[in-house]
Specification:
Largest sheet: none
Number of strands: 0
Distance between the termini: 20 Å
Structural class: mainly alpha
Mean pLDDT: 85
Number of helices: 2
Length: 64
Amino acid sequence: MFGPLNGVRVALVSLAGVAAVVAFVFRQPLVGAVLIAGVAVHGLGWLYLWRQRSSDPLGERGGD
């Protein structure tokens, strides 16, 4: 639905979440907060795209 690089995107966002947890463990709250904010914004963007998806895989372009 979102292209062939979806697995790479999932891996990068997951690792950003892990890095945020590690930052909090090492008492770097600003770094952790920035990473969590980035993951949250990414999640909101993904939710927006998921809600905007079309049942027609070609969208309005047609099949020409």
